[in-house]
Specification:
The protein is mainly beta. Among the domains are: 59 residues, no CATH class; 66 residues, no CATH class; 233 residues, Jelly Rolls. Helix content is 0%, strand content 30%. The protein has no helices and 43 strands. The strands form twelve sheets. Strands 26, 27, 28, 31, 32, 34, 35, 36, 37 and 42 form a ten-stranded antiparallel sheet that branches. Strands 25, 29, 30, 33, 38, 39, 40, 41 and 43 form a nine-stranded antiparallel sheet that branches. The two termini are 104 Å apart.
Length: 752
Amino acid sequence: MARLPKSPGSDRAFEDVFPVPIRATRAPTSSDIKFQLGQMWVRTDTAQVYILAQLASGLASWTLASPGASDVDTLTGDSGGAISPAAGNITLAGGTNIASVGSGSTITFNLDAAISLATSVTSPLYLVGAATDMSIRAATGQDIIMRMGDASGVNKVSFHDSADMEVAAIDSNGGFTMGAITFTGLLTAAASATIETAGTALNLGSDNSGDAVNLGVGTVARAINIGTSAAAHVVSIGNAAAGAITVDTAAGISLDAVTASNFTVTGTADLSLISTAGSINISGGEAATDAVNIDAAAGGIDMDCALQLSLVSSEAAVADAIRIFASAADGGIDIDAGTGGITIDSTDAISIDGAAASNFSVSGAGVDLSLISAAGRVLVNGEEAAPDAVRILSAAGGLDTDVALQLSLVSSQAAAADSIRIFASAADGGIDIDCGSGGMTLDSTGILEINSSGGVIGIGNDAVAQNINIGTGAAARTVTVGNTTTTSGLVLQAGTGDITMTGTVKEINAELINVSGDSITFEMSPSTCTAANTGGAATGGTGDVNILSFQQGFMMEQFVIGAGQTIIKPVMDANGLLISGDLIATEGYEYNLGAARVNSRCAFTIGTSPAFFLEAELFVADMSGGNPYVIGFRRSEANNGTFANYTDYAAIGLNSVTSATEVTILTELNAGGQTATNTTDLWGGDASAQTVRVLVSAAGVVTFEVGGAPATVAPSYTFDNGDVVCPFIHLVHGAVAPGAVNAVSWRCGFQA
């Protein structure tokens, strides 16, 4: 802040002197702070004067002291009271539908080009015109809305002429009242729109103009209904004058009613139905002796009714009292009926004949087709001298019997040699019997034979994936396939689904047998030897491998775990094959089929081999001794005395660290660390046997079973694609005094 200047005073040495005004060609700013309060600033280029009114927080506040020619302190609007300036300024802003623009010393208020009203305009609203029309215009895409005071037709928009007479009105429910209407464009009706007569006649084309009156002449197919409601309408078309009525359609014309007579013609003239290809006359106008003649020279006649159609003639002496005839080569007659059926009855013979290969066709989902003769045979395709009660014969072609319901061929002539016979006698004759979803059953109280004298007999030789059962009924029977005549052979084939045999196979005499799996219940002690290439007796040193040879040629490898074994040979006892060796903590055995090699027996490749499994029944005297006692699959790698050091495995059994009484699942993937899962399924107690199972899908997905049922709790585990995995039994005793472990059975191979 600048000091005030001094000057010699009369009563004191020096007096404060107010500073001289600052002259400049700009307005002061908040940064001009080095002045005393009250300092005046004269802006010479605009003739404005400012006064320093405040110094605060390092900023200066300069107030304009010269407003102009007049002094206005506030502005007052319709509401809000007097508005004082802020920082010397009062803003004049536009509002709804009004905008303000300032230029120079002028502020201009303009009405918006498009006005949007916040509320509706209070009625009545009058648009008064003089010599010119009144126009209400909307921008492109903008609706014009006139909102009424109700929605029930009480209020309306009324159009008056110059004499103040109402000539048209639209009420608030959409009702339209008008006098004459003239339009040149398209009149479109919304859905369910109606035109009502309001108690007076509705006239269309009732003037004296010669212009056509058209209904439904568009190019899109539609239904055109006249008087189709349930009321008893009287519909009149045409008059007694000479004008003709033309009814024309490419799809046919239907005349229908609920009375017995659908079409009534009055007058003295005949009713003529005329075809350009011939003539069709009903009741009169025909020179032939037929009392009623329906004749088509080159086309077809279709008679279709749901009620009774009667063709009756009193001219009994005429040869053809009633005749329905199509004489041309391509003439056809179609007779249809509803649920009442069609009855053809004659006291003389009835002949159905035609030139086509198939003379008579019955189709539909109705009742059975019955050909019944009370006195003798029913013959199809001519007179046959053989004593066949019912015979269906095709001499030169095929006979196709295809029904969705029941086809019954019944004969009472039990004494005939062939009571019912279906026969195609020609060299190229064929018989094809098809049926729908109801199936087909062939049953006989005598011998039922299927033979072919000239070709292969095929059963299930189509490309449809449906099972074929032979002799699977619940009755004791002997099923014989093939025979022993000279060079007769028997071929059994199966894809990846395998061949499953149950029961006891008494004897097999084969040149070569390739077995993909093993199923053995241990019944005898094995012979043993070392797996070393030096040969010799089995040994019990740490890491030694011995070979065990069982009944049925089944062989396993025995890997020694721990400090060594003195009990080397597994032997049979009352509980099975004793495989636990020395009952010493941290010692035991692993039994496998050469799991250290990828070419070992029962080595499976994930992604290549079909789904496979391992099942074993183990007898355990002391459940707390397992650390662990497990079976399963592991990736093919060198034998390891520490189970958790294998890189990939999925095993199930007992693991006292997890539970001393419940079955445990141990898994590890890609050396990622062992996971122990308690299934919560009980083993069954000490001195008891349990069957556990590990199943692996072709994609490597592993599931587990205990006692034939899925494990209650099981982890999600999948071997990597391409891994070679092998089955094993791994036994290591815990620190507590362990009991014996016996192997009762072993089953390994592809899943069924």
